[in-house]
């Protein structure tokens, strides 16, 4: 099927739902560890509590990709039903997470939240490849990244913003502050509203041959053998991209799970107080705990705001790429390589950062984030069968979630402990991992993946 080129606003409409998805991911990534610490988790326990996120991605994304490849509704299309289902579930989970009465409840809600976000997210990746001709793939994924950057920056600053409006940032021991609860409620609304916008402003191409589509849908109804077959036959370029993804996502999972304890302790000198270290029956000791906890909550807001900078810089980076790729082709390989190395440098510089200079570290990290959300998918979509785009994108997610599972099961704690006991060592590990990911781009040799050319 000959796909027509779309205008900027048509691509914007089809990608706008990612604003809500990124609200969900940014609130989860920026503040879930804070919620865990508030509910009593030690910093060494946090990576394992985060295991819900990659495990649900590993299970959900290939299934949703497989199902969406075999879905067609004249009214709702192929990918949009999954956007909507995931949005409804995610919005409910976002509202409930900060109201968790205990640590195990919060961990359980994280499972539900991440699974729901993944239901919406995977079809969005496939939609870009479904809708756009190959010459616009880089452009499409970069516009998507621009919207993700906007969502990351706003959502990461929400607790700080609402506290500036007078919402309390102080709470009793074991209770999440109202500023965080209000921020998550806003995120729930934005998630659903932005997905609805895309659902009602975007249509989809029907299968090229409806009779063949129906036959294939009936014939290929065995999920596990089909997934295993697609894994076994994945293109060489996809495997090489998988290596890059492995080190990239090990780094970012380390940031999401441990940046708050690392930076509140190392940069802001306000680590989370441990209640058992205080005699809560003694009024002076109880007051000291409240003061320490308030400082931790305030510094956590500042860490979240600093993390939001990586969304802002990824947005600026994506905007530059959008302007460039709207008229020209780019060398995806070298753009991605240098972007990842820049992010690695940002993590390493956190060792010497002050509260004032921390934002510059996240500017560099944002450049790598902007590239991670666009370049691998643009390279992959030029290397695979378009009829299998949904399931391939779901399988490609394995290279995202496996390193996160390894990190959660002790990989971060083990590797960072080789350097020392300080929490900031986790950010050093993230930096080295991201630089390795950048250098692995030298493995990519497929010319079509590196740079789309009309004559290919």
Automatic annotation (TrEMBL):
Membrane topology: Multi-pass membrane protein
GO molecular function: transmembrane transporter activity
Alphabetic keyword roster: Membrane, Transmembrane, Transmembrane helix, Transport
Localization of this protein: Membrane
GO cellular component, one term: membrane
InterPro entries named in the record: MFS, MFS_trans_sf
Transmembrane segments: 12-36, 48-68, 80-97, 103-121, 141-162, 182-200, 241-259, 302-322, 334-351, 357-379, 391-412, 424-444
Name of the protein in question: MFS transporter
Protein species of origin: Polaribacter cellanae
């Amino acid at each position: 099927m000959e796909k027509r080129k779309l205008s900027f606003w048509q691509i914007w409409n089809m990608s706008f739902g990612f604003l809500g998805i990124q609200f969900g991911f940014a609130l989860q990534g920026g503040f879930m560890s804070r919620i865990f610490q508030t509910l009593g988790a030690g910093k060494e326990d946090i990576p394992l509590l985060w295991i819900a996120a990659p495990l649900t991605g590993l299970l959900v994304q290939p299934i949703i990709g497989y199902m969406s490849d075999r879905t067609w509704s004249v009214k709702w299309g192929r990918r949009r039903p999954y956007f909507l289902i995931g949005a409804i579930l995610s919005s409910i989970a976002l509202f409930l997470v900060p109201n968790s009465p205990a640590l195990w409840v919060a961990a359980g809600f994280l499972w539900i939240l991440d699974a729901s976000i993944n239901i919406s997210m995977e079809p969005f990746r496939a939609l870009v490849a479904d809708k756009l001709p190959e010459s616009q793939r880089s452009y499409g994924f970069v516009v998507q990244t621009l919207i993700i950057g906007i969502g990351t920056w706003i959502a990461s600053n929400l607790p700080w913003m609402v506290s500036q409006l007078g919402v309390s940032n102080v709470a009793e021991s074991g209770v999440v502050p109202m500023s965080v609860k209000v921020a998550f409620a806003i995120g729930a609304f934005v998630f659903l509203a932005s997905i609805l916008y895309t659902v009602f402003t975007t249509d989809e191409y029907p299968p090229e041959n409806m009779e063949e589509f129906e036959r294939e849908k009936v014939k290929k109804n065995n999920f596990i053998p089909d997934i295993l077959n697609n894994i076994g036959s994945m293109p060489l370029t996809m495997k090489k991209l998988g290596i890059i993804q492995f080190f990239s996502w090990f780094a970012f999972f380390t940031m999401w799970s441990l940046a708050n304890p690392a930076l509140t302790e190392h940069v802001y000198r306000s680590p989370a107080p441990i209640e058992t270290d205080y005699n809560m029956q003694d009024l002076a000791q109880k007051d000291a705990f409240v003061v320490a906890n308030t400082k931790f909550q305030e510094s956590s807001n500042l860490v979240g705001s600093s993390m939001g900078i990586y969304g802002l810089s990824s947005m600026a980076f994506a905007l530059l790429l959008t302007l460039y790729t709207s008229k020209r082709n780019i060398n995806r390989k070298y753009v991605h390589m240098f972007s990842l190395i820049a992010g690695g440098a940002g993590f390493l510089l956190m060792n010497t950062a002050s509260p004032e200079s921390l934002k510059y570290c996240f500017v560099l990290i944002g450049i790598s984030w902007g590239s991670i959300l666009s370049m691998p998918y643009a390279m992959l979509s030029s290397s695979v069968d378009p009829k299998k785009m949904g399931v391939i994108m779901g399988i490609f997610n394995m290279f995202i979630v496996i390193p996160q599972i390894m990190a959660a099961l002790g990989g971060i704690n083990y590797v960072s402990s080789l350097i020392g006991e300080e929490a900031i060592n986790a950010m050093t590990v993230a930096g080295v991992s991201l630089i390795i990911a950048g250098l692995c781009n030298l493995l990519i040799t497929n010319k079509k993946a590196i740079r789309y050319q009309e004559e290919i």
